[in-house]
Design goal:
By secondary structure, this protein is an all-alpha fold. Helix 2 runs antiparallel to helix 3.
């Protein structure tokens, strides 16, 4: 079972910063919002995993829907581009 490592003000600050990062990543006006990088290492499937974990730890903020959106886009890209077999930068990282 997951247990928080921070308490009190440190925890509140960390959660606030993580939420700010999450809002920046899913902002459709940012340059990375229109990426065609489906990889786990630096692309859409990695974003999907980030938001899936956020949904588990901070439910009710729409992070689950964001995770699904990023994953669906990664799958669409994977089906239309040739991707390498690498775990972090290829098709297996998306699967």
């Amino acid at each position: 079972m997951w247990k928080p490592v921070l308490e009190g003000t440190a925890n509140e600050d960390a959660v606030r910063i993580i939420k700010e990062i999450a809002e920046e990543i899913r902002d459709p006006q940012k340059p990375w919002a229109d990426t065609d990088d489906a990889s786990f290492a630096g692309g859409l499937s990695g974003y999907a995993l980030f938001y899936a974990y956020l949904e588990e730890s901070i439910p009710g903020e729409g992070y689950g829907e964001t995770a699904v959106g990023f994953l669906e886009k990664a799958i669409d890209i994977m089906s239309s581009q040739l991707l390498f077999p690498g775990l972090y930068s290829g098709a297996p990282g998306i699967a």
